[in-house]
Amino acid sequence: QNTATSCSGCGVKLQTTDASKLGYIPEQALDREPVICQRCFRIKNYNEAANITLDQGEFLKILGHVAEKQALVVNIVDIFDFEGSIVGGLQRFIGNNPVVLAVNKIDLLPRGMNMNRIVNWVRKQAKEQGLKVVDIVLCSAKRNMGFDKVIEVLDTHRQGRDVYVVGATNVGKSTLINRLIQGYSDLDAELTTSRYPGTTLDLVEIPLDDGKHIIDTPGIVYTSRMTELVSRKDLGTIMPDKPIKPIVFQLNEEQSLFFGALARFDFLKGERQSFTCYVSNALQIHRTKLEKADELYANHAGVMLQPPSKDELEDLPKWTKHQIRVPKGSESDIFISGIGWIRVNSDLGALLEVHAPKGIKVLLRDALI
Ligand code: GDP
């Protein structure tokens, strides 16, 4: 067997144990010449980028050097998990470099939506995150919408700079990268690498005509996202794959909604009003009286209330409560990362409480729809 310890494509240290981590090479592929990691292999042979993940701390360390460079940064986010997937603190690490927000999975929004309204909403939210956004593109990898626009926007704003593509896991980053590889790269050109100061991480760069590169960065893992907590199977249940059909509940105070056994929404105080749930149509919502809610959970979590199933339930962090006061006269959503959001329809104000696994992002925001 070959004794190479590093990839001859990108130089990363090889390992055969974890396919989701950098440098992975299947055991049997070590016999092949040249010895390249699975990531380089896929790019070379299938024109396709593989997924590599890191946590945000490691990630921002790697990105630190971008501040001293001229670069354009593309942050791809998931419209269904916007607050969960936006890269917080990005601007601090990239200095004055501009950001393009590519908002993916736009196909999930109910049909007939006003897209300008969505763009304005995204712009406002991005500003609150301190991002210097030069452009916002709505797209759908799945429906093949908007990516030509992404390429166009990159051409407009790149101005002879490198492009860094960043994003949380599951937002559709690999689809975008693959699209960019097909749109741009000269396949005969050598893949090049850059070493990130102070780390052992070598990343594959996709060459552009003018000697600059598109740099794919590892997908960022956020433990504040429900999509990182649940099993593959349950991910299929909570992540919508069709346009969301909103479900309206007329609730009196002291009524509760269960989203499987993953989260619970209590209407504690306020006048009778309607709440619209924007969640995957595969996720069951159970309505009950607040006074019965604890008992219902105790007796039915993991069975009638699922996902998750009973044995998976033990792997989830215990619930914590988030009390939220919706001010009178506001147009608000209650956002629960990975589950979706609940639109508060009246402007009467309400006192609400959300129960969700500890650490999962839950917040009050301006209504998206
Ligand atoms: P990555 O982890 O960011 O590289 O994301 P992937 O490209 O692997 O996609 C993650 C998941 O999101 C997959 O289940 C995709 O099918 C799904 N996905 C990606 N793009 C879209 C999209 O535009 N719309 C919808 N509905 N799902 C998408």
TrEMBL record:
Organism domain of life: Bacteria
InterPro entries linked: G_CP_dom, GTP-bd, GTP-bd_ribosome_bgen_YqeH, Mito_lipid_metab_GTPase, NOA1/YqeH-like_C, P-loop_NTPase
Record domain CP-type G: where: 56-223
CDD domains: YqeH
Pfam family membership, one: MMR_HSR1
One MF term in the entry's GO annotations: GTP binding
UniProt-recorded name of the protein: GTPase
